[in-house]
């Protein structure tokens, strides 16, 4: 996975609409997106601007998983 960001909210919405159903990924509360490397080429082909922050760290992956976890049933 690769960590990317978008320059503004409009670009982010356009990118998410494109990526949805094509690639798996996660959005962190920091606004960073975790996507597979193949998504980078697809975004570039659609002329969607993004910045690559680097390879996703273990901590980012765990934060994404924790954020997606369901709250415990009481």
Which key phrases capture this entry?
74 residues; alpha+beta; 4-stranded antiparallel β-sheet; 3 helices; 42% helix; disordered C terminus
Instruction: Please give the order of strands in the largest beta sheet.
Output: 2-3-1-4
Integer tally of domains: 1
Which residues sit in consecutive blocks of at least 5 with pLDDT less than 50?
69-74
Radius of gyration: 13 Å
- The averaged pLDDT comes out at 87
Distance between the termini: 34 Å
Largest sheet: 4 strands, antiparallel
Structural class, by secondary structure, is alpha+beta
* Helix-strand string: EHEEHEH
Overall geometry: globular
Percent strand: 15-25%
Task: Give me the number of helical elements.
Answer: 3
β-strand number: 4
Helix content: 40-55%
Question: Could you explain the architecture of this structure?
Answer:
It contains 3 helices and 4 strands, in the order E-H-E-E-H-E-H. Mean pLDDT is 87; it is low at 69-74. The chain has a 4-stranded antiparallel beta sheet with strand order 2-3-1-4. The chain is globular and about 30 Å long. Helices cover 42% and strands 19% of the residues. It is an alpha+beta fold. It has one domain (2-68).
List the topology elements:
Layout lengths: L1 E4 L3 H11 L6 E2 L5 E3 L1 H9 L5 E5 L2 H11 L6
Antiparallel strand pairs: 1-3, 1-4, 2-3
What would you say about this model in short?
With 74 residues, the protein is an alpha+beta fold.
């Amino acid at each position: 996975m690769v960590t990317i960001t978008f320059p503004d909210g409009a670009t982010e919405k356009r990118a998410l609409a494109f990526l949805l159903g094509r690639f798996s990924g996660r959005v962190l509360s920091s606004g960073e997106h975790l996507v597979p490397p193949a998504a980078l080429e697809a975004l570039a082909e659609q002329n969607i601007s993004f910045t690559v922050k680097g390879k996703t760290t273990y901590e980012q992956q765990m934060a994404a998983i924790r954020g997606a976890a369901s709250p415990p049933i009481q």
